[in-house]
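Hello Y.,

Per our agreement to keep a running log of every chain we model this quarter, I'm adding this entry. I've kept the format consistent with earlier entries: sequence first, then predicted structure.
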Amino acid sequence: MAKAARLAVLAATLLLVSPMAWAFENEPTGFRGIAWGTPMDVVRAKTNTWFNRNVAPGIDEYRSRSDLTMNGVPLTYNFYQFYRERFSTGIMEAESAYCASMLETLIARFGEPDKKIARTRFVWHGKITTIVYICSRAHDMCRVGLESAALVAEQEKDLAESARKHPDF
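Predicted structure for the entry above:
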């Protein structure tokens, strides 16, 4: 009996840490019809964006006022981020009055989030895409970010390698 219990615990642990556990319903492979990794010039031509800021080394962010709804919720901006000139992250921003509607839309489409941080931040981890929802009434904004899991992992690897090479930075 004890052996069966240990096997059940082992099986449950493997399910929790396996990639299958990180999938969610209807996981997207991009943002607003643009696949992760699409070259920056192709995305910019489709989205009518303008330069917003350098987010971090190798990450440029562009802003757009086109396609400004999310399931009927009016958006302020869409942001497009590129890592090494490849599309890596899409962000939708709305006024905080729409936080509840945006969260309801996300749950209806992707299921319950796998991580909740207080009442204002929720995360869906997928094999392809990670979705982060943040509501800030203090800053009067709600953001939904979708990011390429592969490109974010590449970026983190590059940052770790840079930190290893330059420990005194």
